[in-house]
Amino acid sequence: MFEHIREDVNCVFDRDPAARNIFEVLTTYPGLHAIVMHRLAHALWSRRLKWLARMVSTLSRFLTGIEIHPGAVIGRRFFIDHGMGVVIGETAEIGEDVTLYHGVTLGGTSWKEGKRHPTLENNVVVGAGAKILGPIIVRENARIGSNAVVVKDVHRDTTVIGVPGREVVRRTRQEAKRHKIAQKMGFDAYGATEDMPDPVANSLNRILDHIHLMDERIENLCAQVRSLGGELEEEPLPTLETECFGDQEKPEKEAEQGRLK
Description:
Number of domains: 2
Strand content: 5-15%
Structural class: alpha/beta
Radius of gyration: 22 Å
Distance between the termini: 56 Å
Shape: globular
CATH superfamily of the largest domain: Hexapeptide repeat proteins
CATH topology of the largest domain: UDP N-Acetylglucosamine Acyltransferase, domain 1
């Protein structure tokens, strides 16, 4: 359990650039508090201490505004950003590295016993206010847009928007390459797709395409050098940290102060 909590804390830094230090995350992130209390409630539920489990769940809802039934099965590195108004039903199943934003509901559409809540596979991201209803499956790497209402299965690598939810983007082979090279660099393109009307996102995609092509050429050159008996020193690529971009704001702030004077 403590290993899971450590992973839950670390994943906050990966997905929220506003997180500054461990103490701040432990004391001020309601999503983390809800997950920790759910892991305790679920352990009690699994041992048939159901009333006590429901009390822990109720206390968690009172403190965080996030309602997670103690019977829900949640995987590792689960992250709830902001969190207020999130509801996760009893038979919901959530895989690893899943992210939910505030106002998300993983609800049921029937009063019948048995499986009645959705299953989210690994690496799913659900936008603010989205409703995923019924015993459906949201496949790996899917993205659910804000305020979408999803009532049927979602294919992997797909973006779903609207009411009712409809699939609008299936990740192409080229986008998969971008994602791979972005992960290698320690960069997250936020699931931006080529058809989005965002010139910044499209520019980032072009940069990732260029980096991927250069990376392939360098690997081919290295292979040729090795085949000729040469030796190469290989070091891992450095990761991009948010602190690397902090200094860029200073000239803008100084210029703004100068104009005010």
